[in-house]
Known about the structure:
Blueprint: E1 8-9, E2 12-13, H1 40-48, E3 69-76, E4 82-89, H2 94-102, E5 107-111, E6 117-118, H3 129-133, E7 152-157, E8 171-174, H4 188-197, E9 213-218, H5 231-240, E10 245-248, E11 250-253, H6 260-277, E12 282-286, E13 305-306, E14 313-319, E15 335-340, E16 349-353, E17 357-361, H7 364-381, H8 387-397, H9 405-408, H10 420-430, E18 443-447, E19 450-454, E20 459-464, E21 471-476, E22 483-487, E23 490-494, E24 499-503, E25 513-520, E26 523-531, E27 537-541, E28 547-551, E29 562-569, E30 572-578, E31 585-590, E32 597-603, E33 606-613, E34 619-625, E35 631-637, E36 642-648, E37 653-661, E38 664-672, E39 678-688, E40 691-696, E41 701-706, E42 714-720, E43 723-727, H11 736-739, E44 742-748
Parallel strand pairs: 7-9, 7-10, 8-9, 10-12, 12-14, 14-15
Antiparallel strand pairs: 1-2, 3-4, 3-5, 6-11, 11-13, 16-17, 18-19, 18-44, 19-20, 21-22, 22-23, 23-24, 25-26, 26-27, 27-28, 29-30, 30-31, 31-32, 33-34, 34-35, 35-36, 37-38, 38-39, 39-40, 41-42, 42-43
Helix pairs in contact: 4-7, 5-6, 7-8, 7-10, 8-10
Amino acid sequence: MKRGVLWTVAGVCVVIVAVVAIVLITRDDGDTPSTVALADEQRALLDSAVPSPDCPDEPAAAPDDDSLVALDVLRVDEQDCLVASTEYLPPDEVEARRAELMAEDGIVAAGVVGEVAVDAEDDRRDDQWPLDRLGAEVGSPDLPWPDGDDAVLAVLDSGIDETHPDLGDAVVERRHYPGEGKHDANGHGTHVAGIAAARRDNGGIIGVAPRVSVLDVPVRLKDANENGPSWPTGLAWAVNHGADAVNMSFGGPIPAEPDVEQAHGLEVAAAAVYFAVSNDVVVVASGGNCGPSPLTDCDNDNQRQNPASLPGVIAVGAVQEDFDLAGYSTRNEDIDLVAPGGGDLMTTVLSTYPGGGHKGIQGTSQAAPHVAAAAALIRGAAPEASGDAIGQALLDTADLDLLDEGDREGPGVGHGFLDITGALDQVLAGLPPAMTPAERTHAVFVRDDELVAFDGAQLVPVLTLDPGAEVRWVDWAADGSLLVGVVGGELFAWDGSELVETACGWCSESRGAFLEDVHVDGATGDFIVGMDYTGAMTWYDVATLEEAAATTPAFPADAVGTKTLLGAVGGQLLVHESGGAQASERVWLLDPASGAAELSADVMGSPQAPIAAAAEGEQVAVVTGYGACSAEVTVLESAGLTELAVAPVPEDLIVEEMFFNGEALYATLAQTASNCSALQPGGLWRLDGGQWQQLSEDTAAARPLEGIEDAVEQSWLIAYPGLAAFDPPLADGPSPEELGAVTDGPWATPTRTEVPWP
């Protein structure tokens, strides 16, 4: 993958402000000059986009008028979708229209993207020498790596003949466009798809990842698919539709001194790639067939290519059956690694071809899908691995020793020959040990002055509480690999084996919030944040609990009341504003990246109990009032703080804890004494249609659990006075004697489905 640097066009600075370079994976052997860099404003817009198959996509039909050019536009709309569109204009109107577009809100980039062209028990397994060279047993249908289950590979190409017997059910979705005709009239895309994903036992060949799901994304290619949409718009569609990896076996030359129009086109291309790699998609492209062979047809030998040279793209060169670098394979510093492509000895790569047949073709087009399929199958085997980690593993484990000594000494081979099993092993070895799967409920409670965690299988001590210390707040990472919280005046983080603690000034005053993968004060990562009585927020690196930033939130001018941090919901912070006796109270959504609060909802009074958030963060419930004995519960839709329900707490009861069980809100209540303090348990209640319904009378506290490692997959952990139990009982889990008396809690992550009350 390439670093990003700023560049100029014919002595004129391109209209891109100075930027921090895009860096996802860097070389060990020095920097490679980049073709383009994106401005901070562009990257911020792209970072705000949320991939979704529901995002608008309306490819424009290519006009019959060849004098018109395609102006591609990338914009982030009000629904946080990256929308790719194309307008066809006369050449002399392009710059004026581009200037008009760039003045609009949400526009990331607009430009004319440069022309690209293609780089070109089963009966035929014996003919698949690439699999043998990659480590499979010669002629065997068994592969020494996973088949790609649960992974999605997007093939941007001339289209795919999905009716080919060898492709079976491989294609799960296609980006249709006006006037598309045959799904692959050229054959190039079907050939590439077969290398990556041909199914087993269909009477033909076997793909590198024979169970991977394929997205068919036809794009405009010179002499192959002239009417298809541009490849950057196709790449945006692939990311929105869940691609784990993308193969682009095509390229176009990049002039040594691009003019302004070419620069704008490269900007659109770079923005699309940035959107992909920043959303953990591994992007692979053919390195080009512009090597020194006299048979190549390029403007210049070893010329740089779009998209192979763009920041974040893994560029692939081609080797022959004897591991020699193919004569046609481009030799420049953009190449990251090499894979089987066939070559000078007339060896070709056999793969699927439209009409149900097979054909041998050679080229870096054939080398690239070996790498893209490897990236996809690694993601399938390690779904929690980042795209950065997968790409780096492909580079780190590539083998130079297999290649000809003369080839190793020059450009064009990058890190070496693709090693699929080596890359997979590196990714699996580098993953942090997760305590439990994400779909399992994680619970924690106090027993005999000890905080104890239950991960669905076993009880594990976390820390010993000092006398009188109160557990003020706890929260789990989404995958259950980390527990954070506040006990007394101490902040702690526990990863299942190591405990980190630190004193904090706000810990005795308020609860904290835990946010994963957020941008704060120029840094990105996982943070705990706390707010003191002045409204100032302190951010802590969750791994070390060292202070990482200090920020002051920005509220509208009329938000003058005292602020209290309530917690995190849906990646945002929820803050209560108390206006005093003469003003209304509100809750605000605070964006952690900008520190700005824009959305609010009116509530009654000040906070009376911890908030509750649903498993996916789509709902939040708050308890507010002018005293614990006159409180009400407000349920809000998190994204816009739309009110869903308001329910007064039943008379003579106060809320101890609330939690979501699936989409339903539950609460443990307590009966009150004359001074409105808790007197005795008031049982478990559920909010139905805006009214509270009592489920039990003597339950002191309870939480539903799902995904338990037991014959019973769902149960309730219930704290009765003096004891605790699972109901239904667990066959292999902790007994009531092992649970002991739960003196505080339990607290648990919310369930995704509603667990019935026993």
